[in-house]
Amino acid sequence: MMWKKLFAWLDERLGLNDLYKATLDRPEPKGNWWNTLGSASLFLFLLQGATGIFLSVYYTPSPDHAYDSIQYIMNGVAFGWLIRGIHHWGASLMVLVVFIHMLRVFVTASYKYPRELTWLIGVGLLLCTLGMGFTGYLLPWDQKAYWATTVATSIAGSVPWVGPFILRVLRGGTDLSALTLSRFFAAHIWMLPAVLTGLIGVHLYLIIKHGESEFPGRDD
Amino acid sequence: MKEEQKKKVHEKYKIALQKGERFWPDSIYKDLLVSLGIFILLILLATFIGVPGEPKADPSDSTFVPKPEWYFLFLFKFLAVYGQIPLLGKIEWIATAVIPGLVILFLFALPLIDRNPFRHYSRRTMGLSIMGVFVVSMIVLTTISGVPAISGNSGMSTMTLLQFMTGLVIPILAYIIIVGSSFLAKRSRPLASRLQKWTAVAASVLMAIVAVVVVAIAPKTTPAAEVQQANTLSEQIALGQDLYSINCAECHGSDGEGGIIQGVAGLDGFNMKTIHSQDEMYTRSDQTLKDIISYGQPDLGMNPFGKAYGGGLSTTEIDSLVAFMRYSWDDRAEMPAGAISSIPTLNPGEVPSWDVHIQPLVKRYCASCHQAGKQNNNYIMTSYNEMINTGDNAPLVTAGDPESLLLKLINGQEGLDPITGKVIRQMPPTKLLDPQYVDMLTRWVMAGMPQTAEQASTLEVVPMPGTAVDLTGDPTAGLTVFEAQCAKCHGENGIQGIENPGSDDGTVPSLNPIDPEIKGADLKSFITNLDIYIQNGSTPGGDSPKLTMPSFGTQGILTQQQIADVIAYVMSLNK
Amino acid sequence: MAGSHHISRRDFIKLTTAAVGTFIGAVVAVPAIAYLIDPALKSASTDAWVPLGKLAAFEIGKPAPASFTRSIVNGWEKTVNSYGVFVLRTSETETLVLSNKCTHLGCHVNWFADKQEYICPCHDAQFGINGQVLGGPPPRPLDRYSGDQVKVEDGILFIHFLGA
Asked: Greater confidence, B289 or B226?
């Protein structure tokens, strides 16, 4: 009784029931295991967010301390290896899952009317995910990170006319330096996640609005 | 799309919903199960594979070959293969900016480009075939990304050609055929879609086969030598210690004590100052020490060691070196728990082995000079075989021979080169080893120089005299020690030993007179025999002797001088 | 019949979903909490004998300031901390070493020879020559090293420092 009363009180003010009806209690076409990949991507995003927040407790984005602080996370902090391990592998898995999810959408032609915008935003999400992978790769400030980022940013520099300028913007100067590390860090933990969160919000809204697409039948 | 088609789409969706399920809980249940699977997979990956360790970024090390994350490898390889195209390959930005840009644009615009209202696979063979070929070429490029595109000197080798085929030519041909056959569709739709489907399948299979061939005929690359890497501070200090021994000890001494440099070209006779003092440690920051090591002090004769200035040490290695110096010599810095000396100590009765004891010992104190390329009479001590077999005057060590040249030299005696007749000075030249290390080496040689711990465990410790044999004993002082330590078993003046039930003799042996075998032929052997007993103790023969003689020397009950005194006293009893 | 079967399947699905969600949450939360509170659990044991200088340099009956530094590793960073003490030789053989850290709020006390008192500049706490509280807000006497915690080796005075 107590709970029912409390729930009724809250529902009156928050509209919980309407929310439940609108988001959770929806009819859907018969499900398929391939349809779970989108929510798996969301799960990975949340997991990356959580482990990323935990990593930032000890991580220091400066060339002097970035490497040491990660060594400390791996060896000095309880479960640091697990948190970083999940974040490291989660990144790879997220790219893979997002990619397969997009392939599924392509194969079932779910990007067609009325879900064109959902696809468009999905492509944006793919690019952001790759951007997260790219910026996150530099943060450990180890040999692999340093030199791979040097090469990758040089690729941007090969564009005619604006290339050298893009290169300087990416690196925060002509060379890979403390400035590069801190701007990659900012992009990795603030800018890209903010964009991702916003895009995911719209993506989800559109999915609820149009419903999940059904698998095409012979006559579709 | 026409209004009426849109209406049809909505109607069909409504029917699908009626036949369908609820989002909660039906879909969420499946979603969560998949997420759980992924989660468990991640935990397994994190636990059993972990994150591979990498050395710290070193901007001065330009030899590092970088590799992007695996999901960018296909792009990386595409660039490499594209770069092999004659002429066009030189215009790099087509591959770096234009083509990826077009692909992304295409992805964004896909719903607008694809005006085909049908959704079923059978009516979308063109799109599916193109995507199929594209995905397969991504996988193929990723697979062959580890194989260099050029083998041989120049021009189009077989390798280049094959990679060219699978990475560029086959997919492009496939795209052309697939798109081209769509014009056929006007005449015969089934024929066109069959052609597209089979082109995609054939191209994919062909690419896969060529990729497998490329990987198969790729020259086997030997994995790069494992870089020594320290993760924790303790490991860093241990690594620094090794690096110090190899790179620094020949001039600065094994523990930073300095002294007269010997045997270093150009610096012979130079009196090196101490670098482990409080003065040095308190007034030089870590950064200063790193700079000194990296840049050297060329005017003072110190070569640069940093890779940036032509030396052999990476920034990480120099960091480890400085960590070792700071934590070993600076009394303000506390050695972290677990940072143990890399030379294990010997347990009583343990025979040292090369792997466990001698190798780290030699590495710390000898290898600085006794490695290839130094002035060392070609005596190399970096491996077991070299230590035993090399040297201009080999062998320097003979198993079981206490007169081995090496043992003489580390005991501070000079040796004669058996070939040239030249005098060889003590080793290490500036400061003799700690007695426990001299003892360790001696025990190793005497026991037969075992290589592995397993071999060592099968060997018996050969009882060795202590250094007391070389001291002059005072019989009067020896009497006092004798009364306190020996008389209670061997009797006053060593005349009558007390009973020792369970031993063969039944009593503790008399020392006055002593067993003629112990007395031996000459004074020297008498001293040595006595010392072996006092030094190592003894267990008399018999089933279960009640009394055994303790090892007065190795257990530190008596000092070496006291032992020498007792020897002198016992000898005075047996004139 | 079919309905009741359907409902039980429903409930099963709901239960499993809730259980799986809770499981994932717990498996993330437990290590995460340990990870967050980890530094608080580590005891920074910095126990060591610290030299303060030649014993002969200290006059009997007259407190003299001395200081020493200790470095500790905090995570990936090394910090060098300075500590100040007053050394008072109470007799030829006895030495009392007092921390200069006021027990009130941690300011550094100074010795005033004319008053024969340690006075804290922050809140005017007064301590006697042996560290006892004479006046002001401090809750307890100055921290001291005496007896076992002080030794002399080769003429050098050492204190047994147990950490800040």
From this structure: B289
Q: For B334, which of C13, C24, C46 is closest by C-beta distance?
A: C46
Spatial CB neighbours of A96, under 8 Å, sequence gap ≥ 6? B71
As a whole number of angstroms, the distance between CA B116 and CA B415 comes to 95
Mean pLDDT of all residues belonging to chain B: 83
**A122 pLDDT more than 70:** yes
Inter-residue contact B573 to B486 (CB < 8 Å) = no
- What is the per-residue pLDDT for A116? 94
**Interface residue A83 vs chain C (CB under 8 A):** yes
Cα gap C31→C29, rounded to integer Å: 6
- In this structure, what token pair is assigned to residue B319? 């960091």
Nearest to A78 among C28, C35, C75 (CB): C35
Domains and CATH numbers, chain A: 34-210 (1.20.810.10)
CB C121 within 8 A of CB C104: no
> Is the pLDDT assigned to residue B431 strictly greater than 80?
no
Residue type, A26: R
Is A60's Cβ below 8 Å from some Cβ in C?
yes
SS3 call for B415 = strand
H helix or E strand, kind and range, residue C146: none
Whether residue B57 and residue A143 make contact (CB cut-off 8 A), yes or no, is yes
What pLDDT does residue B341 have?
Answer: 59
The two tokens of residue A202 are: 């719209």
Choice among A171-185, B43-57, B122-136, B435-449 with the minimum mean pLDDT: B435-449
Q: What token pair was written down for C120?
A: 């804290």
Chain C contact for B37 (CB, 8 A cutoff): no
- Provide, as residue numbers in chain B, all residues whose Cβ is less than 8 Å from the Cβ of A37: 34
Interface test with A, best of B15, B29, B48, B56 (most A CBs within 10 A): B56
Chain-chain contact of C36 with A71 (C-beta, under 8 angstroms)? no
3-state class (DSSP) for residue C64? strand
State whether A176 and B59 contact (CB < 8 Å). Answer: yes
Architecture of domain B467-573: Orthogonal Bundle (1.10)
Q: Could you tell me how far CA B316 lies from the centroid of its own chain? A: 14
- Residue C27: name the closest of A86, A49, B51 by CA: A86
Q: Which residues of B322-351 are buried (b: 16+ CB within 10 A; e: fewer)?
A: bbbbbbbbbebbbeeeebeebbeebeeebb
The reply to whether residue C27 touches residue B39, judged by beta carbons under 8 angstroms, is yes
Closest-CA distance of chain A to residue B198, Å: 17
A147 interaction partners in chain B (CB closer than 8 Å): 64-66
Q: How far is C4 from chain B (nearest CA, A)?
A: 17
**ipTM of predicted complex:** 0.94
Q: What are the C-alpha distances in Å from C31 to residues B112, B182, B258, B476, C37?
A: 47, 57, 50, 71, 10
CA A177 from chain centre, in angstroms, equals 26
List of chain A residues whose C-beta atoms are within 8 Å of the C-beta of residue C38? 77-80
Residue B44's pLDDT band, with cuts at 50, 70 and 90, is very high
Contacts of C36 in chain A (CB under 8 A): 54, 57
| Sequence ranges of the domains in chain B | 19-50, 67-219, 354-457, 467-573
A77 and C39: CB-CB below 8 Å?
A: yes
Distance CA B536, CA B516 (A): 20
**3-state SS class at B500:** coil
Which residues of chain C are within 8 Å of residue B325 when distances are taken between CB atoms? none
